[in-house]
């Protein structure tokens, strides 16, 4: 089977969830890291031949380009041998995963991305301190969204669909890690969310921990580089 070319950046949540899905499903793929903070998604072959939207993640499969993480997930589920539990046919499973993914695009993804951008990415790129107003408003939105997620999607069962993990769980944990990894107090007054998070983490095992380590190392490396640059500026002045 010709490997799928997978373009990703571990700073991006959907890149992490699709990477874990590819690995866990043993789909042959070529991993092509693209650095967003270096602007590699805005230039060269990636811009001209891979993703006309200039966003990550993206794939090429048999020469065809595809972007948008949900479309990529459905493509993989349709065209490759993805184990059934990720996107089950039985008992409305597939429809429930789709329901979560549709909700996620305008709720979870927006809230987690906005918090991450206001607290970490924008200050990094603009070499400024985070704006208190912007971070407060992103925190409120995140607060509501996590409460909704806990109330509307989690129940007394282990995973969102029951006893088996699905792509909805994988997508959600990677979203939630975005604010969590930069210090957001995700589990305060959210016991059900904490229980679900632990169950998903445990089920994914090293597929998850390896990717999470890379994400955290990347955050640290970028922070260290910004700190070094600040110190160099201070010495110059
Ligand atoms: N709806 C898209 C969103 C893709 C997206 O916004 N990716 C961000 C990653 S955080 C990106 O590439 N941003 C780079 C930019 O906007 O310049 C998906 O689910 O794939």
Automatic annotation (TrEMBL):
Domain GST N-terminal: 2-84
Keyword Transferase: yes
One of the Pfam families matching this protein, by short name: GST_N
Compartment list: Cytoplasm
GO cellular component, one term: cytoplasm
Catalysis: reaction(s): RX + glutathione = an S-substituted glutathione + a halide anion + H(+)
Record keywords: Cytoplasm, Transferase
Name of this chain's protein: Glutathione transferase
Residues covered by the GST C-terminal domain: 90-219
Domain of life: Eukaryota
Similarity section: Belongs to the GST superfamily. Theta family.
Predominant place of localization: cytoplasm
Gene3D superfamilies xrefs: 1.20.1050.10, Glutaredoxin
Molecular function via GO: glutathione transferase activity
Organism: Drosophila mojavensis
